[in-house]
Amino acid sequence: MFQTSLDTPIGTLLIEGTRSSVTSVRMAPANTPTGKSCALLNQARRQLREYFRGRRAAFDLPLDLSLGTAFQRQVWQVVASVGLGETITYAEIARRVRRPTATRAAGRAVARNPFIIVIPCHRVLSAKGKLTGYSGGLAAKEWLLKHEQAVLL
After folding, report:
1. Cβ-count burial of 37 within 10 angstroms (0-12 exposed, 13-18 middle, 19+ buried)?
2. Which residues make Cβ contacts (< 8 Å) with residue 103, sequence separation at least 6?
3. Which of 121, 124, 140, 144 is catalytic?
4. Which pTM was predicted?
């Protein structure tokens, strides 16, 4: 396993993976010690820097989704399809995975997304369009959505 970190406007991200896939991108305390990096994780850092500079709308990284259940992977795929500046509700995610009554389960799957920003769970809103739950905190979620709107202008 390899690790690297990246300081961003919303906090420090910890990026983990192997030489062939990224296994997680998550919030980490500042000054989190990391192990050795590799070319793939350096590429992930570069792409995330580009995103924060407004020069990248989507990520091109091999992600290891194997730790998720089949349902979680379906939810993460739906969330990954939400474009820059767009949003989706938990209910719509449930409908898209053909489990329309599984809104809460979809919410739990979104909450377990191991790839913050890369699989853009910050683009998921409540049924009433309100900001709810985000592993980086609601201030970070709001910042990311505003950042993406500014990039689109």
Report:
1. middle
2. 90, 91, 93, 94, 127
3. 121
4. 0.93
Q: Which helix (H) or strand (E) holds 23?
A: strand 22-28
Q: Which two tokens stand for residue 145?
A: 């959505």
Please give the torsion angle defined by the CA atoms of residues 20, 75, 5 and 150, in that order, rounded to the nearest 10 degrees: 120
Q: What is the mean pLDDT of each run of 10 residues along the chain (153 residues)?
A: 95 96 92 88 98 95 96 98 95 97 96 97 92 89 95 79
Strands of the 2-8 sheet, one edge to the other: 2-8, 11-17, 22-28
Q: In sequence order, which residues have a C-beta less than 8 Å from that of residue 19 and are 6 or more positions away?
A: 2, 38, 39, 40
Both tokens assigned to 97: 């995975």
38 in active site: no
pLDDT of residue 109: 97
Rounded to whole angstroms, the Cα distance separating 101 from 18 reads 37
For the residues of 89-125, what is the DSSP string, one character each?
EHHHHHHHTT-TT-HHHHHHHHHT-SBTTTS-GGGEE
